[in-house]
Design goal:
It is built from ten helices and 40 strands. The chain has 466 residues and is of the alpha/beta class. The strands form seven sheets. A ten-stranded parallel β-sheet has the order 14-17-20-23-26-29-32-35-38-40, with no helix packed on it. α7 packs across α8. It binds uridine-diphosphate-N-acetylglucosamine (UD1) and calcium ion. Uridine-diphosphate-N-acetylglucosamine (UD1) binds next to β1, α3 and β10.
Length: 466
């Protein structure tokens, strides 16, 4: 392996989150913070194999949640950010002479564009290390970027070790850096073997000391000032996490609006960062779009729809609907009050109306399932009409079976289709039927008791009636 690589520091516990999960799995817009950070590394052209996460607290949970291919090393004792990077030495050696991007796993807004620009700067300056810095309104808690009389970078001082004058500095260390790998390995060696580097206020190995070590060796160290102060933001408790969510929510909404998506009122609208939305689509109040959802052009979603990993066709409307892992075709109308469950593919020009649930099923173009029905484990053909109150009886209590409904079939109101069963093309089922046997093409099936009239039954039999 030769190209650039990344080491993401994520061994911390995040005690103040008061969570069973390691802190970096806390979510911003439904996406774990560590995944935001991994995506920033990938934006610099790295594959998963070139990304190494330093784990510690909640190691197993974190490893299970990481994208396939991402490497991990364990930091068993939490002795500081410098010590965390030491754990990744073998990974770094395997990357030879290239550069490494160091990122904090809990700073989700250190975006791909910023780290890419910092890399360009780092390469052009031929630096041994480049610190990504930001000017912030409130520098409390961050390492300060210290400069000499000429404004040249002279080092980073942690809050705990800072003088009053240094505490007033508002340019801070974001915790993200590019290092030449060979230079970093030398600096880590010196840090580990010279006790003076742990005489700081925290008694930890500071990664920021690697910067000082390289400078004292006469190597070139630069800073790259990011344009946004958000890049440094992290969350230590759930109140701060909510703040990150609100910042991210507004950024994403603004990005879509500027790209031609109509979001007239953003009350309760939450759009995850990887959602894609076509032009002239409209997103209405209370709508939550999660995961890798894609909304086609001119579609209208909401109010109050929740879609996760759904693909919604152009011109479709999805009103007051819950959908997970489904595809909906062009110009199809869903809702209000519909539930679309995983494994469902709905064609174009379909109508899935109120109080309809569709699960693990395909529905052909032009079909109408307008009211109060359950369609599960079913292949519904094209231009079918499913009347009100129909159910596929797909579960025996032990096993699940599939139902097939042919093209142009007409399923009368309140029909139960007991799977496995097939209704043929153009076939009808009479209202109230319980269909247990296959219905041939073009046939009418009636599966119900014939109506009986008992004349004057009430007068004769009903004891309560005067
Ligand atoms: C660090 C920087 C500081 C910078 C700030 C930005 C140092 C010494 N200081 O401070 O200059 O302004 O980040 O947020 O580096 N971690 C480990 N193992 C450890 C310690 C930390 O994996 O032993 C991980 C944490 O889980 C976290 C990241 O490293 O994801 C940063 O650690 P944190 O303790 O928050 O560093 P700061 O003290 O905030
Ligand atoms: Ca921190």
């Amino acid at each position: 392996m030769t190209g650039n690589c990344a080491v993401i520091l994520a061994a911390g516990e995040g005690t103040r989150m008061k969570s069973k999960k390691p802190k970096v799995l806390a979510e911003v817009l439904f996406k774990p913070m560590i995944d935001w950070v991994i995506d920033s590394a990938k934006a610099c052209g790295m594959e998963e194999e070139n990304i190494c996460v330093v784990t510690g607290h909640g190691r197993e949970q974190l490893e299970a949640a990481l994208p396939q291919g991402v490497q991990t090393v364990v930091q068993t004792e939490r002795l500081g950010t410098g010590h965390a990077v030491m754990q990744a030495r073998d990974f770094l050696r395997a990357h030879g002479s290239a550069n490494v991007l160091i990122l904090g796993g809990d700073a989700p807004f250190m975006d791909g564009e910023t780290v890419s620009m910092a890399l360009q700067y780092h390469t052009r300056a031929n630096s041994a290390a480049t610190v990504i810095s930001a000017d912030v309104t409130d520098p409390t808690g961050y390492g300060r970027i210290v400069r000499d009389g000429n404004g040249d970078f002279s080092g980073i001082t942690e809050e705990k070790d800072a003088t009053e004058a240094q505490k007033a500095i508002r340019e801070v260390n974001s915790g993200a850096y590019w290092f030449n790998i060979q230079a970093l390995l030398v600096a880590l060696e010196k840090m580990e073997t010279n006790a003076k580097y742990r005489l700081n206020a925290a008694k930890e190995y500071y990664l920021t000391d690697a910067i000082e070590i390289l400078r004292s060796m006469g190597q070139r160290v630069t800073t790259f000032n990011s344009r946004s102060e958000d890049v440094v933001l992290g969350a230590n408790d759930r109140d701060q996490l909510a703040h990150l969510n609100e910042i991210a929510r507004q950024k994403v909404i603004r990005r879509h609006r500027l790209a031609g998506v109509s979001i007239p009122f953003d009350t309760g609208v939450i759009i995850a960062p990887d959602v894609r939305i076509g032009r002239d689509a409209e997103i209405l109040q209370g709508t939550i779009l999660k995961g890798k959802t894609e909304i086609g052009e001119d579609a209208v979603v909401g109010p109050n729809s929740v879609l996760e990993n759904c693909v919604i066709g152009a011109g479709a409307t999805v009103t007051q609907t819950y959908g997970t892992d489904v595809r909906v075709g062009e110009k199809t109308q869903v809702g209000p009050f519909a539930r679309l469950r995983p494994g469902t593919q709905i064609g174009a020009d379909v109508r899935v109306g109120n109080f309809v649930e569709v699960k693990n099923s395909t529905v052909g173009d032009g079909t109408k399932i307008s009211h109060l029905s359950y369609i599960g484990d079913t292949d519904v053909g094209r231009n079918v009409n499913v009347g009100s109150g129909c159910a596929t009886v797909n579960f025996t209590g032990k096993e699940k079976f599939r139902t097939t409904i042919g093209d142009h079939a007409f399923i009368g109101c309140d029909t139960s289709l007991v799977a496995p069963v097939r209704v043929g093309d153009r076939a009808y089922t009479g209202a109230g039927s319980t269909i247990t046997e296959d219905v041939p093409d073009d046939a009418l099936a009636l599966g119900r008791a014939r109506q009986v009239i008992k004349k004057d039954w009430v007068k004769v039999k009903n004891p309560y009636r005067k």
